[in-house]
């Protein structure tokens, strides 16, 4: 992590504790209430549990310190994605999304938002930079793309999109604001599934939207209030706790991933290896679906599951969900296990394939 990231982590860790008085608990209390005392004129910020909650606010403040932008939290990454699209797209708009990005975003557009006269086109991440962006009201990016791990330039695409009046939204789930800062690169809005690395322990669902545009922020906040998609206080507490170790977890995960990529390069069992040079995710392609599944099931250091970014190294064959990858493609999410023990277990398994 660079100095700028360290400064952000310092601000994030102290975002809650700096507001405390003597005798206050250092951990955010889990406030499980639907109601607040509300006599007479409702001039308090706390009015109703669907609108606002102190535990949610504490988590938003921590994430905001990392994003350096106002944040609205949601009960899942897809809830955040939905809010971002509802805040930016209107009837008659066309949205550009990556065809190799998170597939449920495309499902939302195709099966739900199309009924509200919102159209979309999907092109591969590597082709977005050469695509005519003038027909689009929103350009949606993922870099590295999930699961294919292809890259694009947020800065240059944002400049082109803004010339034609389009908004740029970046799903930054794979890298988090510690490894990539889309708002600094010209994006209008960031979404993230904090279920992944941000929370880090695979024990809760969460998401957030961040933007420095006040009008967009108000639209996102109003969507949450009206739709009732405020996160659960206990989940917020878990995310806040996970954020306190985010930098440490990412350091181990990313360092291990870089070493693993080097060690696996040239392994005969692996047909192709994709590693974007940053982050904790690798893409491994095997000769067949059967070999890919054997690798996942046989390796004692790998937890077979969907999702990524947890303390356990996990893997899954993404073609089973319909992603545009080969049948033998495996997304490998490196966790926090001891580096050499993890790599040794993976190499031993590969030797048996």
Question: What does the model show?
Answer:
- By secondary structure, the protein is an alpha/beta fold.
- Helices cover 37% and strands 14% of the residues.
- It has helices at residues 3-17, 54-67, 77-88, 103-112, 154-163, 176-179, 214-227, 233-243, 246-264, 289-298, 339-350, and strands at 71-74, 94-98, 119-123, 138-141, 167-171, 189-192, 207-210, 272-274, 281-285, 303-304, 314-317, 329-333.
Question: What is the gist of this entry?
Answer:
The chain has helices at 3-17, 54-67, 77-88, 103-112, 154-163, 176-179, 214-227, 233-243, 246-264, 289-298, 339-350, and strands at 71-74, 94-98, 119-123, 138-141, 167-171, 189-192, 207-210, 272-274, 281-285, 303-304, 314-317, 329-333. It is of the alpha/beta class and 353 residues long.
Quaternary status of these chains? single chain
| CATH superfamily membership of the largest domain | Type I PLP-dependent aspartate aminotransferase-like (Major domain)
Helix content: 25-40%
How would you classify the helix and strand content by structural class?
alpha/beta
Provide the CATH topology of the largest domain.
Answer: Aspartate Aminotransferase, domain 2
Radius of gyration: 21 Å
The rounded distance between the terminal residues' Cα atoms is 36 Å
- The arrangement of helices and strands along the chain is HHEHEHEEHEHEEHHHEEHEEEH
Number of helices: 11
Average per-residue pLDDT, rounded, comes to: 96
**Architecture of the largest domain, CATH level 2?**
3-Layer(aba) Sandwich
Could you give the count of β-strands?
A: 12
The count of domains is 2
Strand-residue fraction?
A: 5-15%
CATH class of the largest domain: Alpha Beta
